[in-house]
Amino acid sequence: MSLDEIQADRLRQQRAWNWYDWANSAFYTTVLSVMFAPYMITVAGKAAGCVDADETCKKTVEVLGLHLAAGSLPSYLTSFATISSAFLLPIVGAYVDRSAHKKRHMAGYAWAGAAVGSLLFFVAGDNWQLGAVAVVLASILAGCSLVSYYAILADISTEDERDRVSSRGWAWGYLGGGVLLALNLVLFLGHDAFGLSKGMSVRISLLSAAIWWAAFTIIPFVKLRDYAPVAVEEVPGSVVARSFGQLFRTLKDLRNYPMTLTFLLAYLFYNDGIQTVIYAASTYGEKQLGFGTSVLIGTILLIQFVAFGGALVFGRLAARHGAYRCILWGTYAWMAIVVAALVLPRKNVFLFIAVAIAIGVVMGGTQALSRSFFSLLIPRGREGEYFALYGAAERGTSWFGTLLFGVTFQLTGSYRPAILALIVFFVLGAFFLLRLDPERGIRDAGNQVPAAV
Length: 453
Hints:
The chain has 453 residues and is mainly alpha-helical. 75% of the residues lie in helices and 2% in strands.
């Protein structure tokens, strides 16, 4: 093929790849960012004996012998999913690196996650246990699918194309998540007109996210090509043994890529902060600031569409100033957002929306560029393994942030100190980013340094 034909084919693959962002983002938006946490707190609150489901429930439910506040339960579930992923995803990633069928792994995990996620429809009354199991398993399976999805990025784009491709993918995801959320907003606000109870409208919305995720995954599964594994070292033994062997060597060899390790540490902290802010937004807005679910859904919907533009804008800024600088600027902006959220007065919709717009702009840019920048720090042929480590702290699976948020609430009984505590993650993220030499990291990984870093 000619150079033009090769570029045109690569562009078609990139467009097909974007569809999985569209598919899975609906689950993260409708379920993990908006609907699940407040609904789970209400259901668990009923089981704990709280009389008024609209008030913050400080009573506890028993989980594996532990007594956890109903208001903190979603935080603990998210943390548990991430801890489990930290052990599982690297093994999945090692297997992906050795597979010539990355898209099959991506789709298989996605469909399994959607099937488990659909069980959230049956969470009603005080049956919080089913919801706890379903959301944990769906989150883990979503993380597994993203390992393969992210690994494909290196197969379908050059180093100079990564920021643009990743930014468009994230933008496409925000748009997809926003479209489904808009439909769910109509259903929720008009549940009486549809002959539905408030709880049933939420349950249908949770189910719709699973169906959307499964249905749109068909597009990239059909249109993407499979790519042969690259630069895979031979290891004797079974497939599982080879995967563990590659995992061990990758962790051992990580010391040879100090800039990659430095970015992973930075990302672990600032992304935990981002994910917890996204996760906690609906809980904080409803339980602390006194907004109804309709206002919260509308605000998160606004964030989705603002983030669509934010991802594209940051992609253009990265082409001029480099992804590294844009990510660093983004962490500073997140610090300001956390402080602004702390002092928000109750039921002041205007200021709440202003902070939401700021979240959308910065969220769209930092998440998109983090993915593309990290891909430049990975040795070719080990994308699955390294993106598995990256994915352990990815969307909807924060560990330290949600744990700190939940513990702080349980100790203080207020979500304000819980939201303020998150600023430490952005401070630590910026600290490690400032210690990073991006050009050295890209060269150490054996990749070509883009025109702007």
